[in-house]
Every structure is written in structure tokens, then in C-alpha cells.
């Protein structure tokens, strides 16, 4: 497997960067069942830690319809798994995976923080607009109640404004 494609092997799952055991195995020149055996051994020795760092993610083989085991792992799970893998190739792959995890984490940090900031701004605008509309509705209801009172008062005052010309001269 080309180390340049390792960047594609780290993916986002539930907002966290993870690697898939199906992608790890060929990167190190290992068979997937052998990688699964190592993961299960870690889960057996470190059950609580393993549960936080290895997620069982079975998959269905599109060619035969069979379900097979796989695991998604955190950066820590990946590091624990591959620490025992040796040789020049293993060293290069480990470094590439570490870089890929770090890039994904940076992407999450920068994109998520920007998205959260944009959401917060939009939410504040929403709240302000909602409050404004609510106040307008209250003012409209108040006006509906007071309008009749104002009209009645103006009608009562209107006759007082009528000027009478009683000069005795015909108009």
C-alpha cells in the first residue's frame, strides 16, 4: 500500500479521527485476521482502555454478503496496536498514520470551531430577531386593544373642533 494514501485511511467517526483495522492491516503487510487477533488480545488484557479505543464495527462483504469483524480505533488504539510492528516499512507507516491522525484532529479543531462560531452568531441573530418579532406582536395586540379607545376619544373631541360662524351674515 502506498504511504501517501494513508491520509485517506484516517476518517471521521462521531467527530473523532479513527482508523479502520481493514486499512491498517494491508498498510503493514499483515493479514486482517492477524490484526484482529492482536486487537482482541489488547481488549482482553485492557478491557476498559480497549473499550474506549477500539470500536467493533462489523461490515458486510459486498461480494458474498457475509458479515465480518472490523474495528475502528482511536489514535491511542492505533499506537498501542502497531507498537509491536517492526521494520523500516512499519516505521514509515507509523509516522504516516500519526501524521494523518494529527491532520484530521487539526481539521476537526479548525473546522469544528469555525462551524461552532458561525452557529453561535446565527443563533444570537435568531434570538434577537425572535425577540423583536415577539415585541412587535405584543405591540400589535396592544394597538388592537387601544385603537378603539383612541378612535372613540377622537370622535368625542371632534365636535369640539367644529367652528361655528354666527356673525349673522349670510354665507
Textual characterization of the structure:
The protein is 62% helix and 11% strand. It is rod-shaped and about 110 Å long. The chain has a domain at 3-118. The strands form two sheets. Strands 1-2-6-3 form a four-stranded antiparallel sheet. It has a two-stranded antiparallel sheet with strand order 4-5. Strand 1 and strand 2 form a beta hairpin. The mean pLDDT is 82. The longest helix has 70 residues, at 88-157. The chain is built from five helices and six strands; from the N terminus they run E-E-H-H-H-E-E-E-E-H-H. Helix 1 (21-27) packs across helix 2 and helix 2 packs across helix 3. It has helices spanning 21-27, 32-45, 47-53, 75-82, 88-157, and strands at residues 10-13, 16-20, 54-56, 59-60, 67-68, 71-73. By secondary structure, it is of the alpha+beta class.
Amino acid at each position: 500500500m502506498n504511504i501517501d494514501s494513508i491520509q485517506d485511511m484516517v476518517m471521521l467517526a462521531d467527530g473523532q479521527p479513527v482508523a479502520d483495522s481493514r486499512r491498517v492491516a494491508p498498510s503493514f503487510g499483515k493479514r486482517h485476521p492477524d490484526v484482529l487477533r492482536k486487537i482482541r488480545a489488547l481488549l482482553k488484557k485492557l478491557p476498559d482502555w480497549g473499550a474506549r479505543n477500539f470500536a467493533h464495527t462489523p461490515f458486510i462483504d459486498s461480494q458474498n454478503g457475509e458479515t465480518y469483524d472490523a474495528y475502528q480505533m482511536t489514535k491511542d488504539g492505533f499506537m498501542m496496536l502497531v507498537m509491536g510492528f517492526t521494520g523500516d516499512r512499519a516505521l514509515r507507516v507509523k509516522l504516516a498514520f500519526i501524521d494523518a491522525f494529527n491532520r484530521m484532529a487539526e481539521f476537526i479543531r479548525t473546522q469544528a470551531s469555525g462551524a461552532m462560531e458561525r452557529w453561535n452568531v446565527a443563533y444570537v441573530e435568531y434570538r434577537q430577531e425572535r425577540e423583536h418579532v415577539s415585541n412587535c406582536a405584543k405591540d400589535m395586540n396592544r394597538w388592537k386593544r387601544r385603537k378603539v379607545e383612541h378612535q372613540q376619544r377622537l370622535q368625542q373631541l371632534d365636535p369640539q373642533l367644529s367652528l361655528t360662524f354666527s356673525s349673522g351674515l349670510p354665507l
